[in-house]
Amino acid sequence: MTFAPGFLSVIIPTFNAEAYLAETLESVLRQNWEPLEILVVDDGSSDRSMAVAENFGHRVRIIACPHRGLAATRNSGIAAARGGFLLHLDADDLLTPNSISVRMAILLAEPQLDMVVGKLECFVSPEIPADECARYVLPPAPQLGHLPGAAIIRASTFLKFGVLNEDFVVNADLDWSVRVKDEGANICQLDDVVVKRRIHGNNLTIVHNQELDTTRLTIMRASLARRRKAGMDGTLVEHR
Questions:
Q1: Which of 42, 158, 182, 240 is deepest in the core (most CB within 10 A)?
Q2: Which CATH architecture has domain 8-238?
């Protein structure tokens, strides 16, 4: 089966995300980009996440999986995606207007690029009571993202560098991003804010906060070992 040039698959891994999934899907459907497919890959949710996705009818393709964790769910989405370009988006985050078209224009114009990565901006979810908001310290300025939401990646890049390491409960996306950069991926970085990350207290990185530092250290040590072995830093293309 042949698909049109620029066909993009948006992969949304979902685990008990019924509170935010509809808003996330709407942020994708508002994008000014075609052709597009949206895959909701459910990681064995016990809430109404599947029902929320089903309400969007033919606009959303649902893939039901047993509960195996976020990295495995992302990988299932990669395997099922039909597009030549992939965008991973967490089920509680939001794409900004023109988020897709800005990045796709660059990827289509520069075929040597493996991915285009923009910035993310954090926000506290509106339903969080004011007296609880002080618990969350948000970065004062947008940050360069990596895999979820921030990057649009050629499907061939996953064939070239492999998929996510499912041994990571958290930070598998960071591990993948660091590894492919070390191994020479051709990356374009943008200053545009392309995704808004919702902070609500049940984020995986908050629930598993104690594991974050441990996995970051593991990732940085592996990166250092790769760089020393290869004698190179990888390729980075700055957008003009």
A1: 42
A2: Alpha-Beta Complex (3.90)
Can you tell me the distance from the alpha carbon of 33 to that of 44, in angstroms, rounded to the nearest whole number?
30
Up-side HSE of residue 64: CA atoms within 13 Å toward CB?
A: 9
- Per-residue pLDDT of 197-221, as tens digits, reads 998 877 655 544 567 778 989 999 9
User: What is d(CA 163, CA 150) in angstroms, rounded to the nearest whole number?
Assistant: 17
Which tokens hold the place of 99? 């988020």
- Exposure class string for 91-123: b at 16+ Cβ within 10 A, else e: bbbbbbeebbebbbebbeeeeebbbbbbbbbbe
Run of H or E residues at 27: helix 21-29
Rounded Cα gap, residues 8 and 11, in angstroms: 10
Q: Note the pTM of the prediction, 2 decimals.
A: 0.90
